[in-house]
Design a protein that fits this description.
Number of strands: 49
Organism: Rosa chinensis
Radius of gyration: 35 Å
CATH topology of the domain at 485-653: Leucine-rich repeat, LRR (right-handed beta-alpha superhelix)
Protein name: non-specific serine/threonine protein kinase
Transmembrane segments: 607-629
Distance between the termini: 71 Å
GO cellular component, one term: membrane
GO molecular function: ATP binding; protein serine kinase activity; protein serine/threonine kinase activity
Largest sheet: 24 strands, parallel
Length: 653
């Protein structure tokens, strides 16, 4: 049975002359909304599909006190007749497509609640809103207002909640706004405000939430912000604040969420941070903070769920009781100068979902540093100094999608238990000391997108099951000790765009079906012992940017079909036994090839490799000799030693 959206019957709401309250909330009614009730006082029509303009006749319902029309599809202007609704106390038109506010709205002087957020309102905020002196809540966020906040807003002395986020408001904030001493929530984030935050912010002592994110505020954070003793959430992110965080700030013991990230703040984090026992989220990343983290940070914050200290210059060890409350979900401290072993409390923190420790100088044995973390999604330990082996317990972290541990000194075999991480998409273990054969269990990772095991001591053959990893796009097995041949049918890699198996001990021919891949960025087969001719099918990789088959034992001609490969940025055929003609298209701006002359660019002339290279070499030798002889004539005897030519130019590429 097909479900139809209920449509408002044309007759159902007629002749209801005594109706005072109508509630149609959270249905799927559509069309113009019903309003022809002369005595209606409360109209609840939110969360429907009512569309079209708000009718001008709504001003005739003089007794209306409460209108809720948010989450509909209303459009056009708010009619000027709304100014006739002198009894109106609550007006919510949020989440529609309305585009202008009439100045007559300022006549609705009994309004206590005005919500127009998430529409298409533009231009300046009407100064007449300052006449609504009974307003308790004003929501204008998520629109396209521009210019400054009208100073008349400062007349709203009983205002508790002010939302102006997500507009294009600019210029400094009028001083009268800082006199709204009853404010509990001030959200002016995601605008273009600029200037300093004045000391008068300390007058807003009832503030519970202060959100100034994504603006152009600059200068120091005023110490008077420490007067806001009931403040629970402070977001100063993505501005241009500078200097150190004032000492009084750390006395905000009720502060739960602290977000001054992406600024130019500097200095150390003082011991007083330990006083903030209500902390749930601390995000100070991308600043210029330095020094050590106080040792008792986290000790008295049992509800701490998020720590983001990344992209600063912090040093020393992480506090030993950083996660003593075991509520910690995200530990993001990458790109600092942290040292020493990891806190032991991490091992028992089962709430962890994201851990980023990369690009530091952490040390210690990684084997038992972590336990079983059933909620863990991401673990980045790259570019540290960890040693030890990977624990089989990692196989119990079933929700991991991203595991990156490259650039350490982790050794031993890659545990087969990693094959149990069936959600894994990124596995990067390169630049370590892993040994043994390629773990068969990796073939279970059907969602794997990026696999990098390069620069280790892995041995054995490259298994054929890799071709079954149909979502794999980046594969790097370079700089290992793999032997044998390439898998017989690499064409089963349906999405592979980059393949690097260079610097191994692979042999045999390059499979013809390698041309069936969809490689776009890189194919690097260099520094192996591949032999035979270049496969004709290789020319099918017409969008490949970099091709490197150097340092092998390839022979024969470069196929003329390579003239189809027009996207190359770099090509390297060097140190092989290739002979014959260079396809015309392979000269020019491509790295590793001889530049074309202007005539050669537009002709089909083929150049013999065995002739071109010796001639170029001879010309180069003559040029060097002439320069040296001229220089010797100007120099004193014995100052210049002629270079020794240890071997002749090779005619191969």
């Amino acid at each position: 049975m097909v479900a139809h959206k209920p449509k408002q019957p044309s007759w159902i709401f007629t002749n209801l002359v005594k109706l005072e309250s109508l509630n149609l909330t959270d249905n799927r009614f559509q069309g113009p909304f019903p309003y022809n009730f002369p005595n209606i006082k409360h109209l609840y029509l939110e969360s429907n599909n009512f569309s079209g303009p708000i009718p001008e006749d709504i001003g005739l319902i003089s007794g209306l006190q409460f209108i809720s029309l948010y989450y509909n599809s209303l459009e056009g202007k708010i009619p000027s007749s709304v100014g006739q609704l002198r009894e109106l106390q609550h007006l919510d038109l949020g989440w529609n497509s309305l585009n202008s506010i009439p100045s007559e709205l300022g006549l609705c002087t009994n309004l206590t609640y005005l919500s127009l957020n998430s529409n298409q309102l533009s231009g300046k905020i009407p100064a007449e809103i300052g006449l609504l002196t009974k307003l308790d809540l004003l929501r204008l966020g998520g629109n396209n207002f521009s210019g400054s906040i009208p100073s008349e807003i400062g007349n709203l002395n009983v205002l508790k909640y002010l939302y102006l986020w997500g507009n294009q408001l600019s210029r400094p904030i009028p001083m009268k706004v800082w006199n709204l001493t009853n404010l509990q929530i001030l959200n002016i984030g995601d605008n273009s405000f600029k200037g300093n935050i004045p000391a008068e912010i300390g007058l807003l002592t009832k503030l519970d939430i202060l959100l100034l994110y994504e603006n152009n505020f600059f200068g120091s954070i005023p110490s008077e912000i420490g007067n806001l003793q009931v403040l629970r959430e402070l977001d100063l992110a993505q501005n241009q604040f500078s200097g150190s965080i004032p000492r009084k700030f750390w006395n905000l013991t009720n502060l739960q969420n602290m977000d001054p990230y992406n600024n130019n703040l500097s200095g150390p984090i003082p011991p007083e941070i330990g006083n903030m026992n209500s902390s749930q989220r601390v995000s100070v990343f991308t600043n210029r903070f330095w020094g050590t983290i106080p040792s008792d940070f986290g000790k008295y914050s049992p509800n701490l769920t998020l720590i983001q200290l990344a992209w600063n210059t912090f040093s020393g060890e992480l506090p030993p009781e950083l996660c003593s409350g075991f509520a910690l979900e995200k530990l993001i401290v990458n790109s600092n100068n942290f040292t020493g072993p990891l806190p032991e409390c991490l091992r028992n923190c089962s709430a962890l979902t994201h851990v980023r420790l990369e690009v530091n100088q952490f040390t210690g044995n990684i084997t038992n540093a972590f336990g079983i973390h059933p909620r863990l999604v991401l673990i980045h330990l790259s570019h540290n100094k960890f040693v030890g082996q990977l624990s089989p317990q990692w196989g119990e972290c079933k929700n991991i999608t991203d595991m990156q541990m490259d650039g350490n000194r982790i050794s031993g075999q890659i545990p087969p238990e990693l094959g149990q991480l069936t959600q894994l998409q990124y596995l990067t273990l390169s630049s370590n000391e892993f040994n043994g054969e390629f773990p068969v269990a990796i073939g279970n990772l059907s969602l794997l997108f990026n696999l990098s095991l390069s620069r280790n001591y892995l041995t054995g053959v490259i298994p054929q099951f890799l071709g079954k990893l149909t979502k794999l796009e980046f594969l790097d097995l370079s700089d290992n000790n793999f032997t044998g041949v390439l898998p017989v049918d690499p064409g089963t890699f349906e999405r592979l765009t980059s393949l690097n198996i260079s610097h191994n001990k692979l042999s045999g021919g390059i499979p013809e079906k390698i041309g069936n891949l969809h490689l776009q960025y890189l194919l690097d087969l260099s520094s192996n012992t591949f032999s035979g001719s270049l496969p004709l099918n290789l020319a099918k990789l017409i969008i490949l940017e970099i091709l490197n088959v150097s340092h092998n034992q390839l022979s024969g001609n470069i196929p003329l079909t390579f003239s189809r490969m027009v996207s190359h940025v770099g090509i390297d055929f060097s140190y092989n036994n290739l002979t014959g003609l260079i396809p015309t298209v392979l000269c020019g701006e491509t790295e590793g090839l001889t530049p074309c002359t202007s005539g050669l660019r537009n002709s089909n002339k083929k150049i013999l490799v065995g002739v071109l290279v010796p001639i170029c070499g001879l010309l180069l030798l003559v040029t060097i000799s002439v320069v040296i002889l001229k220089f010797c004539k100007k120099s004193k005897p014995g100052e210049i030693d002629l270079p020794k030519m240890s071997k002749s130019f090779d005619s191969s590429i």
